[in-house]
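TL;DR need structure tokens for one chain.
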Amino acid sequence: MTVIWGAVLAAGLLLVASPWLWPPRAEAARPTRDGRIARLLQEAGFAHAPVSRPAAVSALAAAVCAAAAWLLTGLPAVALVAAVAGAVAPFSWLRARGRRLRRSRRALWSDVCDLLVSAVRAGMSLPDAVCALAVSGPPALRPAFERFAQDMSASGHFDSSVLRLKATLADPVADRIVETLRMARQVGGTELTAVLRALSSSVRADAALRAEVEARQSWVRGAAVVGVVAPWIVLALLSLRPEGARAYATGAGVVVVLVGAVVSVFAYRLTIRLGRLPEPQRWFG
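>> reply
TL;DR here they are.
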């Protein structure tokens, strides 16, 4: 009995002291569905588009693809697979566009850093140096800096304007540049040019290395696309024949179509994942 009372007392003391022994940890808030879509739109270059637009386009594409597959083959299973593919296609296009934008801009950020260093060394203030990129910056990035210049002239507040610029650019390297400028604007210091010069060298080396590796691995994505598309072209051609349509309309044919769709998606995702380089994360997004 004494042992039981001692164990109960020890448990009570442990529960009382638990808030100090194991303080609660703040869990990172998971992004909502609208937040993920908004981020996807930002990375694809459509930062000002409404969040509901991709869902509407997805529903329309699913209906069109399902109707086309039904009219072409007359098979419900094929129409279902076409509807799912049509629903996913707009989001896949946005992700692919975001990757292309990051790839095309990757070699431009070092030039942006060099132009900022030159402007700061020439005696320009940070807002003027960033606004000057609307004229002297790389052509692909000038529209974003033009919007920043208009926002800056309208509000006169550098911090909020540069945060909107960061949301418009939606790039990991741009996030680092913007946060460096914000810190230099808030706390001052004489190390801004050195930091930007070091960032420029790092970005230039990373861009050269990634370009070389991606050029050697470009065949992986091509092989994955061919491996996924080819069986479905054969299925569509077979479904055009009456005996093929009757075979795929049976229960076993439906199972073959659905299992083939699942295997195709899994094989494509696995091939892309094995041949893809890890993308830098937007830690300051």
